[in-house]
Amino acid sequence: MSIIKCNELLYIRRSVPDVSKIEAFLVDFGLIPAARQGSSVYLRGTDPVHHCYILEEGPARLLGFAFAAKSEADLHTLAKATGCAVEAIDEPGGGQRVCLQEPNGYAVDIVFGMATPAAIAVARQPVNTGSEPLRRRELLRLPRGKATPLKRIAHVVLGTPKVAETAAWFRDTLGMLPSDEVFRATGEAQIASFLRVDKGDEYVDHHAFLPMRSDDVGLQHVSFESQDIDAVMADHHFLQSLGYEHLWGIGRHLLGSQLFDYWNDPLGYAHEHWADSDRLSASAPTGVWEAKEGMVTQWGEPATERFRHNVKP
């Protein structure tokens, strides 16, 4: 039994030497400034979540990330089991949190009661498929000249030499479930553990957190859901026109099935646009794969070496 069962990934927190420069990238990438406090910036997507990205001024590094708690009672259960305090959050959005540390040293905030803003409406035209068209006598015209606003943060991939230990911590502490486990070969070292949140019969993303084998410890990438497949494709060309570094894509993963596209920010930290993930309930079985079978695309080019080794502390 785990201590609690967390809800979805809530935000990522980084320190950067030039907040305005990375904020500009994130706005170009599709996030929306939501609040400021001192030199820190808080950005959101269109879903009704106060913020999903925090930038603080400081040396370039990942500070941590957060998951939502299902109840205030869960915060107190977690605090009692770990010896950590329940504390008020003195930041935009407010709420309460228990701040933990996962095996690689990063802070993991478990948050309850953060302010819930209204969703931001984004007009998207339906796509005609099948024999009954959804768009009649209406020409498809996509917005041009800026990124499509992103829906939400979706998952974090952490490079670590301690894949099994890290995955066990998230299972035992936060009740996460393995969707797929990947090994170098049968009986050899574990390469990755795709972990989803446990919401019982409710269907959730294939993974919200993924420790992946790396000699270095750090952020391998952070992922965001786009409004649709058109947005992934159009935003690829928009970011390309601005001269940002493209890492990998466009393609479709096997594990998780997302249509993906990866870009580096000016500090070399990887960010993913995706659309159309597999969704699983708690009863779904765990897949077990060898790396050569599981870590592949259904279509698109194989992962670049630059992407494979793009782990930043």
TrEMBL record:
It comes from Cupriavidus plantarum. GO terms for molecular function: dioxygenase activity; lyase activity. Residues 8-113, 152-276 form the VOC domain. This is Catechol 2,3-dioxygenase-like lactoylglutathione lyase family enzyme. Gene3D superfamilies: 2,3-Dihydroxybiphenyl 1,2-Dioxygenase, domain 1. The keyword Oxidoreductase applies. InterPro entries: Glyas_Bleomycin-R_OHBP_Dase, Glyas_Fos-R_dOase_dom, VOC_core. The keyword Lyase applies. Keywords: Dioxygenase, Lyase, Oxidoreductase.
